[in-house]
Batch of 3 targets.
Target 1
Amino acid sequence: MNRTLALALAMIGAFSWAWWTAQTPAPLKEYAAPTVFSAGRAMIDNRVIARTPHPIGSPANAVVRDYLMQRMAAMGLDPEVQSLDALRRVNRSPTPMVTGGHVENLIGVLPGKSRTAPALAIMVHYDSVPGSPGAADDAAGVSAALEVMRLIRTQGTPERDVILLITDGEEAGLLGAEGFFANHPLAKHIGFVINMETRGGGGAAQMFQTGSDNGQVIKLFAQGAVRPSSSSLAVYLYEHMPNDTDFTVSKAAGITGLNFAFIGRQFDYHSPTSTSDNLDKGSLQHMGDQAFSAAKAIAFSATLPSKSPNLVYANTFGSHILAYPQMMGWALLAAIGLCIALGVQTARRAGVFRWSEVARGTGGAVYLLLTSAAVFHLARKATGAGHGFFEQRYLLAQVNRWEIALALLGTALVIYAANATATGRSRYIAAALASLTGVLSCAFGFDLLGLGLGLGGGLVALIAFGRPAGITGAWTGVLGTAFLAALVGQIIAPPITFLIAWPLALAALLVLSVEWVIAAAPG
Ligand SMILES: [Zn+2]
């Protein structure tokens, strides 16, 4: 009974924590102190920019352009319009294509103490897609950038020039950025870019892209930003997706920086409902807080972050970011290995360790992995997601339900596998469950992967379950399996291995301390 209660409490704690970390800060009102980022103030510009759809070349876009020029002039940024025809070659397989159009980029400069030091550019785009007012994409970025520029001016004269670059034609293929970085004399003057984009109408704002060799940039962001939200997982995933923003162009020009976006509320993205009223003001506040604090650190520093090896990093508690070099991942694994070995030694001395039980624990963990993969595979098939790319939005729109469903399903499987391992009962039921999942995958046509995962899980259940496994040996098997997975991860994809290594380190430490306590107990 006590154990069930502890488990329930742990689960409630974990889910609340996950929920809490996804929350955005409360948006500040228009009359907030002039030295802090205020989503309320940014919304005044947002409502003007996102009055109607304003795609590249449209009369509405010219109205937005004129408004922004007036705003930049009022801030003393001496703005200019870079008017040119831009082309961009898109190397999309199988057919590379070229897009082009006439763009009008808006460029304003806040002069720094040193006019020759590499400048900081705040980059956003003012065009929307046709048919959408674009309050999120990218009026959110533009209005946040104006508020950030206002804030930088309140801090005195920056060490370096701060350039506000509001590009045009991003939605038509990054045309404005392409034109700017290929042709404008100021492009060579830029040493750091902060880009703000959106891929949805709400949710927490994430920093999801940097330049190469980002060690120092991440340190600066982790230590200096207000409510920083990012991880090497987000950066890694984005790098492996086909999406682009203006940052693609500045990054290709060899300039480092930080790229921000939020991706919640998918139905208010590139749609007629992307209005200022519907925009999540908390997302705007979150993005602005992070962008302003990072911009301040760069603008008022005598030196820019230099290139240094990539870090592995992620948020731990709230806004805290834990970061270390990729090579340190090996040291962490060594420490975990040592903990497991000490645990085995302690258990052997106490005479409660049997290798057959380690095998059962390993079987339980492998059963869990295979069956989870089979269930996930079947879910993708059954919902249509596994039938190839058709439209991401409907899937992304459901992402919260997906997360909750997967979390519950995963937890249920963990408890089930642990119970089956410990009691040794339900061997045939466990095998049947896994196999049935695999067979069901074939309801949509023969599916070797789904079938293999399910039958594999079934086979492991038959071998591993059947006799009760003692907790010490079983846990060693579970930890050992996770340890192997972390080793493989550290070799293949070090930036994302923390996903296994951090919880594993905690689990190994916990198991070891429990064993020490038990070993020290009399009798
Ligand atoms: Zn955009």
Target 2
Amino acid sequence: MIESLSTPHGDLSLPAFLPDATRGVVRSVDANDVRSAGIRALMVNTLHLSSQPGTSIVKEAGGIHRFAGWDGPVASDSGGFQVLSMTAGGPRGVTVSRKGLSYKLEGQSKKRLLTPDRCIQYQVQLGADLLFCLDHCPPAGADQAAHRESVDHTVSWARQCKEALEKRYPISDVRYPKSEEQQHRQLPAADRPPLLFAVVQGGDDQGLRAECAERLLELGFDGFGFGGWPIADDGGLVDAVGQVSDLLPDDVPLHGLGIGKPENVQAAWEMGYHTFDCTLPTRDARQGRLYLSTSRSLTSEYEYLYIEKERFNRDQGPVDENCDCAACSRYTRAYLHHLFCIGEPAGARLATIHNLRFYARLMDALASRSGT
Ligand SMILES: [Zn+2]
């Protein structure tokens, strides 16, 4: 059982939910709000930040931590999923080749090429603590041939990403593959190289998932991520989520990309996943959908509370009487209802703080349950 992840910005206790700060900010709140909600790490997006303001500007500002006022661990998504998801609504000029992903962003005339080397360059410029290798995520419903190609690209790009990181850090300081000596050598936190995670693709083809995991394990990484679409039509997890966990050793950190519903986070944690990121709780908050714990000893059992509903206009109770967040300890449902009705951004802020606190409490509850 892994209890924490050692990063250049401190140890991250597990499990951990990383809210998506896609453009360097968790929407509607600032770093202090996020921290006070008990969140310990963030996920930023390489593709979006490379487009705006540009990773060189973030680097000049002292890296993403100083730029965004966040001193805890930061993970950076490779951007591969975002490039590919642009194809979901029809052909948008994204082409995949052995070199990488060629794409055109909304409103821009110039085509850009995201290669494995450039992907790592961007993430190193951001100064993230946990980097993801560029992977090839085929669109939903892709056929077996597409998944075959995706696995080949994903493994080849992962190897190139690893080489790209080693080029930028002295080989002796890079901690993978982890030898006994490297594992026990304690560099000061700030001198540690970032962690590099590879993504396991293969769709719902068990053979391809196994091959992808095996080839990536052979290359050696600090951790792995579940690649592809984790959510089934019924809202639960696809079988491949559990298969990927079974294919990897128990002591290897495993990230559930895009796994966000509380019951899915709990299920994935029980399968052996350690970290999660998703836009769900913060997007829900901005839409007035709040998570209501149904007991003081929080589990993934919860209800939704739609704060804009008329019946809350005279409700003098807190959003959630079991919650100790800044919103619940100071404001009433009637006040939050009012803020949402008048379209006041402070409403989205308080709702986001509350939903993030719900996830932080869920992580604590899962950790304490696994320790008993
Ligand atoms: Zn609350």
Target 3
Amino acid sequence: MDGAPPAARPAGLSAYVAASQALGLALLGAAGAWLGRYRGGVAWHGPLQLNAHPLCMLLGMVFLQGDALLVYRVFRREAKRSTKTLHALLHGLALAVALVGVVAVFEVHGAKGIPHMYSLHSWCGMAAFVLYLLQWLLGCGFFLLPSASSSLRRQYKPHHVFFGVALFALSIAVCLLGITEMLLFNIRDSYSRFVPEGVLANTLGVLLVAFGLVVGYVLTRDDWKRPPLAEELALSMDFKTLTEGESPSGGSQ
Ligand code: HEM
């Protein structure tokens, strides 16, 4: 297999990636419809600023985070360095959009004198956001800065992979808590009567779960992982032979 051209895109991968994008766009559309039709729309100043929070969090912590996770499965033939950079850039964009969403809700709470950080949603949400920021900083430090040694990268990689998937799942759970909380604030008395707003917001929740499941499936299919390119294998072989006098196991960081 050494020196062979990388395998073609595995059967089924494109369909799953397309399904994930359709679900991601559908969940953003459902959120827009909910906030636009039933919550008066989105604005930065005034009472509608609170609505900027869910929109930014869904776009940043779910859609963009999910797409950043899929980068290695989608771009299979590009140089590892370019793929890593795109992965980091998409996560960075997700964090920036999420930061706008967090600032929006803190400003609204501050202006209205509502206590901060009292709900389960806010505790888990803050944990998800801070850990996601930490994960991004550590990822950039270990994998993009040339100063990190390859043995350090190898040791850190399983932690990065586990926490990447775990934080994505936590972000979706936090959004589900946020949706339920917002429904209870706004339609507590009519929710149980299957009012259209409740049905639409529940549909958004189901789309979130579906997006998470499809992205999770793509990420956990071992045979859909990006195979190392021929030149990466050769480099890894040279390096291992030079440093340890043994042959490489295949993967590259
Ligand atoms: C991963 C995504 C999310 C994160 C990290 C997050 C984080 C937070 C945080 C930290 C607060 C507390 C702000 C404060 O105490 O001043 C908050 C409040 C709030 N969030 Fe989210 N949120 C997320 C998604 C959502 C979504 C999708 C919705 C609704 C559809 C939502 C609805 C709310 C509401 C109504 C509040 C005000 C009540 C409260 O403090 O619990 N959030 N969020």
